Predict the 3D structure of the following.
Amino acid sequence: MDLAIGIDLGGTNLRLALVDPEGRISSRRQVKTTSFASTSDLIAGIAREAQMLIQEAESAGARVLGAGIGVPGGVDPAGEIVYFLTNFPSGRDFPMRRLLEEKVQRRIRLGNDANIWAYGEGWIGAGRDRKNFVLITLGTGVGGGIIINGRIYVGHSGIAGEIGHITIEPEGSPCACGGRGCLETIAAAKGFIRLAQELLDQGKSSLLSQSEEFQPLSALNVFRAAQNGDQVALLVLDRVGRALGIGISALINILNPEIIILGGGVAAARELFNPPMVEEIKLRAFSRKGKETPVVPPLLGEDAGILGAARLILQVDD
């Protein structure tokens, strides 16, 4: 049987697995990303873990065609060079594909992690049987992957899908990108915290400042406080929902996707920010069909990255 290795390089963990052409995972490996002190250590570590999976597969009579990898950073359109690699300052204009192919002696394909997650969801997840959709991830930041005609859309220079940097408030909070009022400044975990702190600094009464149960101030505790009816937390989630609705309606108007997939850790609060989000989409989406675009949760969880990366090698075309 032909197999591929799917690799998800996260900020916390490097996760690898053997995947068959039906999307079944047969073996997994995991290493702390923080155990790699440099990009050279990282390449050596990925190669070492991949070779262990190759040996395991070959001992069972299977053939490993290659490895796909989703990386937290920009990748050139050819999938050769990583423009920047989150958590590795030296990982700029980094020839990751060539270095890995030299060490693993298998075909390697690279992609931005959010794009790869979208590709996985499009294979056997929430985007299955859909040709055109957008995946948005809400976590420490806001990421995105765009699928057009069943394929990852990377744009002219490979950096399409930076949904977190759609401008929502032109004079809003400064963003790490250098702009102001980006979606990420509101809907990422740090946005939850910033918005809550601004309200608390205005002297508003809240469980977030008055109860040790909701300390320290975090996105999770804002969500928990909102579930308990806390007015400050509910105001935060209303603003998050409206910002997402504005950003999503822009995507709908430009791309006309079949669905929007909304996932990531912060998306757990969706039950509370969904009403204002939907209200904004219905207000701002141009067409009747656009206003009806479903916004759905992902189905693959943390395996989306591994499956999408393996699919780069298996070439399961729609």
